[in-house]
Amino acid sequence: xxxxAELYVIIPIVxxxxxxxxxxxxxxxxxxxxxxxxxxxxxxxxxxxRRLRLLTGLTLLVVAVIMVLDAILNLKWLIIATVLxxxxxxxxxxxxxxxx
Length: 100
Known about the structure:
Blueprint: H1 2-25, H2 41-44, H3 49-73, H4 76-95
């Protein structure tokens, strides 16, 4: 009963994450990349947009998979143990690997 209630919340969130991840990966979702969409042209020139799209899109897809696994397997520690390191990794890669 509890799992069914969680799925009503998780499924729409996962669908949104997957849709945004795919949009960003195909190059149509730059508006969804936080910080990049409001940056000046000079600031945007500092980033390799292809790498930034790849990093952001894959991150959204990975988080969606983690959320589904957490809901199916009912492992409450999974999100805490994986999403925080992923966020830290994305911060580091976004400011190193995705820059020109």
